[in-house]
Write a structure and sequence with these properties.
The complex is a heterodimer of chains A (323) and B (350). Chain A has 323 residues and is mostly helical. Chain A is built from 14 helices and no strands. Chain A has one domain: MetI-like fold (Orthogonal Bundle). The radius of gyration of chain A is 29 Å and the shape is extended. Chain B starts with a strand and ends in an 8-residue tail after the last strand. The chains are: A mainly alpha (323), B alpha+beta (350).
Chain lengths: 323, 350
């Protein structure tokens, strides 16, 4: 037998040698050990950066801590005084209204945009990129842009309406009167929130099989009926998720309002988040600020519970998907 | 019920030509199957009949009425989709009743029509279920029920069985054929599976690359394919093709000589394709020698993959052949079952 042949035979008879995994190897095979090792980083981060600040915030809400002055436990005193406080009650009312109107507008316009983009339109991907633009601009930057748009002297809106179109006599005082300021903030929030709604709903729309629309078309459904009987029910699950997130984000909004109005004029546009900051940090009453922040929790839990039921798997979603 | 006329129909998506002038006449009550490999334009043609695609040129008439500019819902057709397209959020009952509901049919009519369709298809127990709770075959039946409820002039089926497993497919094949025999509605059915086409159709339209290759009854296509494409597409296992020449009244390939049918040889030296179906080889001591590569006994027949000279051939014998790989058997073609095609054009010669 030549050397080449014996080499070939050796190669064909080769078997992977059995290796001893060693103590570490065996430990890594232990499921409990692995679970603990893998969970540790995530749990550590959550405890340090989430649980501790949250717990501290709740604790502070029951003290009269001020900046530079370690407080004492005062029980519900902070909350009792807040419920007598017109500015706080006004902020609660305004936070709810702000969330309500901004959400309705965001979803109305966002769904409309998503439906539009779900059709075959020219330059589709370019339009999608443009729509995402408000979302990728840092909030504070867009707030400054809105600041200029809403400026009493240099507002482009006033300029167009008064000087160009001659539809109005006087420049609009966007941020100087309470209701103007409120609607201006809602407009800014809607502008900023639409991309998130439009893009996620568009993703939802694209999961609906086109053949369902074709079947509906053959069944005699008009475009409105196709929306009502096919799109709407099939979009509901994702709509509920997006709505929940949108409500949570809007309710806890801080940046936009603080950057544009700082809660003014005469505290008319204070959201609970901006008021909490205002009282806690510049006002140095940490305990009171924390109490305002803690007062948001019941509203957020309510929104989450609502979405839990709205998100519950509908009967038609149960069963297998093997079509 | 209605006839369907497809006249010189062309379809282009941008500059891409999908259909290059298709003519098909579908008689009233006929079961016509459009069959061809994927990409041949058969589904596009069906969708044009349904009104889901525009007609670039030519015209389509249903029941004598040209429907080029008629909306899908006014064409009086019903379609069964490949993925069934059942509304996932509606029960079986609501899925079937949807078209009637949109047409504002009275409740009694609705109940009666859905009930009748459910009876025909054996869906009575499933009316309150949602599509996700059904098996593939049941979903398929609901999709057909939705079509039946509408009492259309024409049923369109777009590869309705391709998502089912092999056994269910055979059952549903029989069910659809039975349904057609009971309802006697015109059916146009698209499939890429030639067995479905052979077993179900009154008339088969074989399509290839946007053209109609041949139209005819299943057995006519099997017995007298008009060209090499149809010959190779219809029949399973596929027809054997040997490329060679006619010489002295015989067919010659690599020194192997095979008999030509009925002396219709064409002139000497002409390059021809010799087509013979696997089941038309016979074991014969006077036949040509073939080296066995693989034998596949299926019980009812034995398929043998062998080589005649260098050319691989497939044979299917009714008798049980016990040849082992490497052994030589002698096979001969049944002469009157031989198909001859032109090597250039692929057209039938005999």
């Amino acid at each position: 037998m030549s050397t080449v042949d014996s080499k070939t035979v050796d190669a064909l008879n080769w078997v992977a040698p059995k290796r001893d995994p060693g103590a570490l190897g065996r430990l890594m095979d232990n499921k409990m050990f692995l679970v603990c090792v893998c969970l540790f980083p995530a749990l550590g981060l959550l405890i340090v950066f989430l649980t501790y600040p949250l717990g501290l915030g709740i604790y502070l809400a029951f003290t009269d801590t001020q900046i530079g002055h370690a407080g004492e436990w005062v029980g519900l005193e902070n909350f009792e005084s807040l419920f007598q406080d017109r500015i706080f009650l006004n902020a609660v009312w305004w936070t709810v209204a702000y969330t309500f109107f901004a959400t309705i507008l965001k979803f109305g316009l966002g769904l409309w945009l998503a439906l539009l983009l779900n059709h075959h339109v020219p330059f589709k991907s370019l339009i999608r990129a443009i729509i995402l633009l408000p979302y990728i601009v840092p909030t504070v930057l867009s707030a400054i842009a809105f600041w200029w748009i809403y400026d009493p002297q240099f507002s482009i809106i006033s300029y167009v309406l008064v000087d160009k179109l001659h539809w109005m006599e006087h420049y609009i005082d966007f941020l100087g009167t309470p209701w103007n300021a409120r609607w201006s903030l809602i407009a800014a929030n809607v502008w900023r929130g639409i991309p998130f709604v439009a893009i996620t709903l568009l993703a939802g729309l694209q999961t609906i099989s086109p053949s369902l629309y074709e079947a509906a078309m053959l069944d005699g459904a008009s475009p409105w009926q196709r929306f009502r009987f096919v799109t709407r029910p099939l979009l509901m699950p994702i709509l509920a998720i997006v709505m929940t997130f949108s409500v949570l984000f809007t309710f806890t909004d801080f940046q936009l309002v603080y950057a544009i109005t700082r809660g003014g004029p005469i505290n008319a546009t204070h959201l609970m988040a901006t008021l909490a900051f205002q009282r806690g940090i510049p006002g140095s009453h940490l305990g009171e600020g924390a109490a305002i922040a803690v007062a948001m929790i019941p509203f957020l839990i309510l929104a989450t519970v609502f979405s839990y039921f709205a998100l519950g798997r509908r009967k038609w979603q149960q069963g297998s998907d093997n079509d | 019920m209605a006839n369907v006329s497809i006249r010189a129909v062309r379809k282009a998506f941008g500059t891409t030509q999908i259909l290059h002038g298709v003519d098909v006449e579908v008689e009233d009550g006929e079961f016509v199957i459009l069959v061809g490999p994927s990409g041949c334009g058969k589904s596009t043609l069906l969708r044009m009949i349904a009104g889901l695609e525009n007609i670039t040129r030519g015209e389509i008439a249903i029941g004598g009425r040209v429907v080029n500019d008629v909306a899908p819902k006014e064409r009086d057709i019903a379609m069964v989709f490949q993925n069934y397209a059942l509304y996932p959020h509606m029960t079986v009952r609501d899925n079937m009743a949807f078209s009637l509901k949109l047409a504002k049919a009275p409740k009694a009519v609705l109940e009666q029509k859905v009930g009748r369709a459910a009876d025909i298809l054996g869906l009575g127990q499933l009316l309150e279920r949602y599509p996700r709770q059904l098996s593939g075959g049941q979903r398929q039946r609901v999709a057909m029920g939705r079509a039946i409820v509408r009492d259309p002039q024409v049923f369109l089926f777009d590869e309705p069985l391709s998502n089912l497993d092999a056994k269910l497919r055979v059952n549903m094949r029989a069910e659809i054929k039975d349904l057609h025999q009971r309802l006697k509605t015109t059916i146009i059915y698209v499939t890429h599976d030639q067995i479905e086409a052979m077993t179900m159709a009154d008339k088969i339209v074989v399509m290839h690359a946007g053209r109609v290759e041949q139209i005819g009854a299943p057995l006519d296509l099997y017995d007298r394919p008009a060209n090499q494409f149809v010959a190779g597409f219809i029949g399973s296992p596929a027809m054997n093709f040997l490329n060679g020449h006619a010489r002295g009244g015989m067919f010659e390939v690599n020194g192997v000589r095979l008999p030509l049918p009925g002396g219709s040889a064409g002139e000497d030296g002409r390059p021809i394709v010799y087509g013979i179906r696997p089941e038309h080889w016979e074991l014969s001591d006077s036949g040509v020698p073939a080296t066995v590569r693989v034998t596949e006994p299926t019980g009812s027949e034995t398929q043998v993959m062998a080589r005649v000279g260098d050319t691989p051939v497939t044979c299917a014998f009714r008798e049980r052949v016990m040849a082992r790989p490497g052994e030589t058997i002698h096979i001969a073609p049944a002469p009157h079952q031989v198909h001859l095609f032109d090597q250039q054009t692929g057209m039938r010669l005999n």
